[in-house]
Write a structure and sequence with these properties.
205 residues; six-stranded parallel β-sheet; 8 helices
Length: 205
């Protein structure tokens, strides 16, 4: 019996996917190591913090403890902050920033806030009870020289072997990119702010 056009396409698709699965299974068989990762979300595009918060939610789903330190956002009533309040046994959430530098207009105050946030982050990173620690917008503090990059690198050297550290913010320094296991750069293609649309609940915060 002659195959129809759809039958040929279906068979070819099945054969192609079978070959792909075989190749993929061989690759996966070599990936056996588990370790705590240093993860950096950077770039001009939107989604750096959102991606980090999604990872925090994954940890919560697995019953793993998460620490979150925000280096810029402070008094903002963000959706993620409210949501994680329902998981206080698994999530420690510290919003320790005082707003963007153009809002405070006080460099000494910004440096003090950044140092306090790093101290809080250090306590979480050194504590093996936390499986993931998120340092939200740390890269902004590094960019403005509120914190030395070397201090952050030394702290990363101290983390327990199973702890994941996620760092977000534009303009991640090269030293941090080199140290990281995983780097994602968010690329700005289009943003509603350019068309006069303000930040909105559920999208930006």
């Amino acid at each position: 019996m002659t195959e129809t056009g759809d039958e040929i396409r279906n068979r070819e698709h099945h054969e192609k996917m079978a070959r792909r699965k075989e190749a993929r299974d061989k690759i996966m068989a070599t990936k056996t190591e588990e370790c705590g990762l240093i993860i950096v979300h950077t770039g001009r595009g939107k989604g750096k913090t959102s991606a980090a918060m999604g990872m925090a939610l994954r940890c919560v789903g697995h019953g793993l403890k998460v620490g979150i330190v925000q280096f810029v956002k402070g008094g903002w009533a963000t959706g993620e902050r409210r949501a994680f309040e329902q998981f206080k046994d698994l999530v420690t959430f510290k919003a320790m920033g005082e707003g963007f530098t153009w809002e405070t207009q006080d460099r000494a105050r910004d440096i003090a806030a950044a140092k306090a946030a790093l101290d809080a982050a250090a306590a979480m990173i050194r504590d093996p009870v936390y499986r993931m620690v998120i340092l939200d917008e740390l890269n902004i503090a590094l960019r403005y020289d509120y914190l030395p990059v070397d201090a952050v690198l030394r702290l990363l050297d101290e983390k327990p072997s199973a702890t994941h550290v996620v760092i977000t913010g534009r303009n991640a320094p090269n030293e941090l990119l080199e140290r990281a296991h995983l780097v994602t750069e968010m690329t700005l293609v289009k943003h509603p702010f350019a068309s006069g649309v303000k930040a909105q609940p559920g999208v930006e915060f």
